[in-house]
Amino acid sequence: MYQLYYSPGTASLAVHWMLMEIGAPFELVLTDTATGAQKHPDYLKLNPSGVVPTLIVDGAPVCEVAAILMLLAERHAEAGLAPAVGAPGRAAYLQWMVYLANTVMPAFRVWFYPHEPAGEDGAEAATAASRARLEAIWDRIDAHLARQDGPHMLGQGLSAVDVLATMLMRWSRNMPRPATEWPHIARYLARMRAMPSLREVHAREGLTDWIDG
Ligand SMILES: N[C@@H](CCC(=O)N[C@@H](CS)C(=O)NCC(=O)O)C(=O)O
Q1: How far apart are alpha carbons 31 and 49 in whole angstroms?
Q2: Which fold does the domain 90-199 belong to in CATH?
Q3: Angstrom distance (rounded) from CA 31 to CA 72
Q4: Three-class SS of residue 80?
Q5: How far apart are CA 131 and CA 105, in angstroms?
Q6: pLDDT tens digits, residue range 72-100?
Q7: Same fold flag, 2-79 and 90-199
Q8: What's residue 153's pLDDT?
Q9: Which atom of ligand 1 is nearest to the CA of 53?
């Protein structure tokens, strides 16, 4: 039984959705970022960065959302959420997972916490820079989806890349130009938002915005 330390609508949503897709048994442990629960000393022992998510796997904490998704895909290979080592699509899978974790997530971090890189005085400039960065990211992903042979980021089959990408696209919903303004992303998200597992995750986390468009 996995335990997922989560806060509604945050980076833990991807892990929640992945667990639902896999059909693995899990428990949710609310770690509400709105109350600062992620900085409690007991939680810091699990996740020294003081962020959600943390997934307890065989009694040990695993941090970093992309790593957790890749680990789950590996542990539940029968769910088919990652191309196997050596299979076609493996390189694209690794590339997109690292791009989402390494480029897209940090851009959002600046959008949501602009004072972190820039201090209070530089927050406005940091916000503008992160917006430009994210819009360039949507340009790139939209062009990728336009070229894809199939409805998913890797083509025909759903993968952990879709789980992470969809969650990140959701995060743009209150931005001046949300990801849904890009036509291929909009079509992609319409399909993702129709998935019963994603809809169920929204219901369980009490999230009512975005899922219905
Ligand atoms: N690199 C981390 C980032 C996770 C992250 O930024 N989580 C946010 C919520 S989306 C958080 O916990 N924020 C609260 C804080 O930073 O205090 C990961 O991939 O898991």
Answers
A1: 14
A2: Glutathione S-transferase Yfyf (Class Pi); Chain A, domain 2 (1.20.1050)
A3: 21
A4: coil
A5: 12
A6: 999 999 999 999 999 999 999 999 999 99
A7: no
A8: 98
A9: 20
* Number of Cβ atoms within 10 Å of the Cβ of 134: 23
State in Å: Cα 183 to ligand 1 middle: 29
Give the residue from 41, 40, 67, 36 showing the smallest Cα distance to 54. 67
> What are phi and psi for residue 87, nearest 5 degrees?
-80, 155
Structurally, what CATH architecture does the domain formed by 2-79 represent? 3-Layer(aba) Sandwich (3.40)
**Minimal-distance CA residue to ligand 1 atom 16:** 51
Q: Both tokens of residue 155?
A: 């083509």
Q: Which of 51, 65, 70 to mutate to test the pocket of ligand 1 (most atoms within 8 A of CB)?
A: 51
> Does the structure show a pLDDT above 90 at 213?
no
pLDDT in tens, 95-135: 999 999 999 999 999 999 999 998 999 999 999 999 999 99
Query: Which residue ranges make up each domain of the chain?
Result: 2-79, 90-199
Cβ-based neighbours of 7, under 8 Å, separated by 6 or more: 30, 31, 32, 33, 34, 37, 38, 52
Tens of pLDDT, residues 167-188: 999 999 999 999 999 999 999 9
- Ligand 1 centre to CA of 156 (Å) is 30
Which residue is closest in CA terms to ligand 1's atom 6? 51
